[in-house]
Please model this.
Amino acid sequence: MDEEDAALLVAVCEGSERAFNRLVDRHQQAVRVFLRRVVGRNDADDVAQETFLAVWKQARSFRGDANVRAWLFGIAWRKAKDTQRTWFRRRRRDAVWHEAADDRDEFSGDLGHTLERALASLSMDQRAAVTLCLAYEFTHSEAAEALHMPLGTVKSHVTRGRDILRELLGDEE
Model:
């Protein structure tokens, strides 16, 4: 998969919209799900669009020293962090925003919503590391590369995040 992604990225650098569309098709769903877990459902689609727009604009910045998937998820992560910063600024300016953004009545008792609530209890950094390593089967090194975090930090986030999720979800193992 990585070789095909690399070839697609080279074609994108040469201006191929077809290659770009193929790259988006290959990674769009995974990026959106990752972002839903990191920034929430309301912002995930917008952040995903910003991510792929950045991929189109920044394709030439790919140095080839990482795999394309990790590079792409790294862009998504940075866009998610930008979104979080914007959200906090808005929240400070307008206290009403907090009530609208914190409306959690949509959750039901099913496992998917329970998991979403448990993930929401983690810090954004922990959510991102846990999601990449456990849901997307990134290695710790790949996650560290994508998130621009030290390897030890990613390992710590995954370990602590997993422990918190087990506690919240009642898995005593």
